[in-house]
Amino acid sequence: MTAQAKILPLIIAVTAVNAAGFLLKHFELETNIILLGFRFHLSLVLPLLITFRKEYLQYIKNYFTSPEYKSAFPFTPLIFIPPVLLIGFLYLIQVIEIGDPEYFYEFGLSSIFDYPIYLIWNLPQLLMLLVTVFLYSDIPYLRKASPFVIMIFLFLFEYIPLKEAHHFTVYLSIAFTIVIISLFVIWYRNIYWIALSLFTFIWSAVLAFGSESKEIINLLFASRYTEWEGFFSSGIDIQPYLIPLYFFSVMLLLLFNILTRKLKLKT
User: Fold this and answer.
1) Rounded CA gap, 245 and 258, in Å?
2) How many whole angstroms separate alpha carbon 138 and alpha carbon 124?
3) Nearest to residue 46, comparing CAs of 138, 137, 125?
């Protein structure tokens, strides 16, 4: 596969995703659909459908049958350590408190037990996104920056508002998420762990601190709800910063883990 043959479909995919995304948002239509419970977001699914070629099948097969770091301890459980410490610290210094959200039992507590179902419903679209990023994770002239650039452009329409601007903490959350995914793709090329980790840290952050985004709630949780206040609440001034802080703590752990791995490789 030549670089030109690989990059051209990706450029078409990025253009198509953002054109469709902006158009749907202009007419206030959903950018995701739900079929038999499975979630399919435009930016996660469409790129692979456009860029897929028969000659990619062997690469894709290897991602699933021969993932790297099969014998190492799964990283996913570790990503809970910084957020749990963060929540515990904020709770002890009384910055946050246990809230009394609407639908506490039917949404909040039930979501904990329904985690495996939500994971299964989101897994196909997450795997499709990761396959796309894996295939284009070493673009000439970009190299290790490739996943960062791809992720930024695939979700361009989501963080460029057509009407009302987002709070800047929304952009922080998106930026941290892109960095986390990209670092996973570059350093831990295990498609199963990345998909599981990605869903888990985003799902748990929204469950803990809530979201007013109908799209996020419908993708990660039940489709009949439009917002969730979160298990923890704080003053109005600090609430928007909680999820970015949560994501930042995950990113720090990942960077620390990568640094220690690099030091071990040198010794």
Assistant:
1) 20
2) 23
3) 125
What lies within 8 Å, CB to CB, of 227 at 6+ separation is 210, 211, 212, 213, 214, 217
Beta partners for residue 96, in sequence order: 234
CA distance 67 to 64: 6
CA distance 255 to 263: 12
Q: What's at 59, amino acid-wise?
A: Y
In whole angstroms, give the CA distance from residue 262 to residue 267: 9
- Averaged over successive runs of 10 residues, the pLDDT of the chain (267 residues) comes to 67 94 87 89 94 90 83 60 81 84 86 93 95 88 85 87 71 90 86 90 90 89 86 80 89 84 69
Which tokens in the block code for residue 181? Answer: 């995914």
Number of helices (H), then strands (E), in the chain = 12, 4
Give the separation between CA 130 and CA 191, rounded to whole angstroms.
7
* Residues in CB range of 26: below 8 A, 6 or more apart: 162
**HSE (side-chain half, CA atoms, 13 Å) at 261:** 13
pTM: predicted TM-score of the whole model, two decimal places: 0.89
DSSP H helical ranges for the chain: 3-26, 42-51, 57-65, 81-92, 110-113, 115-135, 146-154, 156-159, 168-187, 191-209, 214-220, 242-266
* Angle between helices 115-135 and 57-65 in degrees, nearest 10: 140
Do residues 231 and 108 touch, judged by C-beta distance below 8 A?
yes
Distance, CA of 152 to CA of 159 (rounded, Å): 9
